[in-house]
């Protein structure tokens, strides 16, 4: 319901003239705009930085109306644009409530809904995180003091359960 409210607001005549919509007859987008909402996470994707800022402004107003707080410190911006014949990563300059949204450093990636996204779209960050976590768990298991067989029997299922939960978090 609330998502439909903000989309209807953006589709209004006031925003059509800003380039959000191609024509009033069919509402075909001039430049594709995407709004992804998952529980308490939202992502705005568009072909132009100016359109992203307009959507963020509308989103900010809607959040104020819905009495929802936007944690700018937990947000990030990531930009890719075409320069001559190739795509390059750049640092978008977007604001929420007059605060600059933190930008993903050039060559770095960001995490959204448990998945890493970067300019080269590799899965190295994800693999590295899983490897580091597994190494940490295995080191903790190795560091456990020698325990009686009675305690050891109860520890093994707990370790396997923790390991299974960890894999479930990192598998996609």
Order the strands across the largest sheet as they lie in space.
1-2
Helicity range of the residues? 40-55%
Order of helices and strands: HHEEHEEEEEEHH
Number of domains: 2
Overview features:
two-stranded antiparallel ribbon, extended, alpha+beta, 172 residues
Could you explain the architecture of this structure?
The protein is of the alpha+beta class. It folds into 2 domains: 3-106, no CATH class; 107-148, no CATH class. Helix content is 44%, strand content 20%. The chain is built from 5 helices and 8 strands, in the order ααββαββββββαα. The protein has helices spanning 2-10, 13-20, 49-65, 124-143, 149-170; strands at 33-38, 41-46, 79-83, 86-90, 95-96, 99-100, 109-112, 115-118. The strands form 4 sheets. It has a two-stranded antiparallel sheet. A two-stranded antiparallel ribbon has the order 3-4. A two-stranded antiparallel sheet has the order 5-6. A hairpin with a 2-residue loop joins strand 1 and strand 2 (41-46). It starts with a helix and ends with a helix. The relative contact order is 0.08.
């Amino acid at each position: 319901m609330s998502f439909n409210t903000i989309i209807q607001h953006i589709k209004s005549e006031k925003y059509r003239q800003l380039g959000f919509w191609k024509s009033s007859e069919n509402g075909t987008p001039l430049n594709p705009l995407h709004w992804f909402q998952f529980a308490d996470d939202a992502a705005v994707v568009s072909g132009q930085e100016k359109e992203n800022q307009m959507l963020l402004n509308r989103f900010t107003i809607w959040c104020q109306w819905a009495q929802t707080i936007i944690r700018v410190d937990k947000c990030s911006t990531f930009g890719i644009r075409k320069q001559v014949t190739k795509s390059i990563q750049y640092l978008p300059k977007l604001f929420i409530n007059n605060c600059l949204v933190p930008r993903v450093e050039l060559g770095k990636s960001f995490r959204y809904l448990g998945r890493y996204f970067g300019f080269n779209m590799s899965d190295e960050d994800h693999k590295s995180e899983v490897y580091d976590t597994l190494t940490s768990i295995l080191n903790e298991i190795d560091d456990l003091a020698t325990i009686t067989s009675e305690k050891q029997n109860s520890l093994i299922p707990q370790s396997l359960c923790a390991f299974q939960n960890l894999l479930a978090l990192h598998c996609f």
